[in-house]
Write a structure and sequence with these properties.
Layout (H helix, E strand, L loop, with lengths): L5 H5 L4 H17 L14 H7 L1 H7 L5 E2 L5 E2 L8 H13 L5 H8 L3 H12 L2
Antiparallel strand pairs: 1-2
């Protein structure tokens, strides 16, 4: 059911039908929100990470790649790393505890859900 058609449907719908439509719309909204464990911890999704990995691929999936900014730096392949390590490294870049300028910029644009999704993707390979 498309929630955008709800106003049109409501003109001729019964109260039970309207309630049903509202519940379906509400359920769809809940299901599209980030996945969280009961403890409030964000849970990563490798499929979602695959959609977000375009900014990682250009450096971290090229064997022997070296970045030249701010100095020559051997870029690690991250596929197969521990997902907890990837997530904590991204969080450290975002917080400023790790200092590579490119990674700080990339990590700074990521939400906790993005980091968990990318960690799930690269940790699962």
């Amino acid at each position: 059911m498309n929630p955008f058609y709800l106003p049109t449907m409501m003109k001729s719908a019964t109260p039970a039908g309207v309630l049903s439509a509202l519940l379906i719309s509400f359920s769809a909204a809940l299901m599209s929100s980030p996945v969280q464990a009961q403890s409030g911890e964000v849970v990563g999704n490798a499929d979602a990470g695959r959609k977000k990995a375009s900014m990682c691929i250009g450096c971290h999936q090229i064997p022997g790649y070296k970045a030249s900014f701010p100095s020559v730096y051997s870029v690690p392949l991250i596929s197969g790393q521990s997902s907890k390590y990837i997530e904590s490294a991204l969080a450290a870049y975002k917080k400023g505890d790790r200092n590579h300028p490119t990674m700080r910029s990339v990590a700074g644009s990521l939400s906790a859900q993005d980091m968990a999704d990318l960690a799930a993707l690269y940790g699962s390979k």
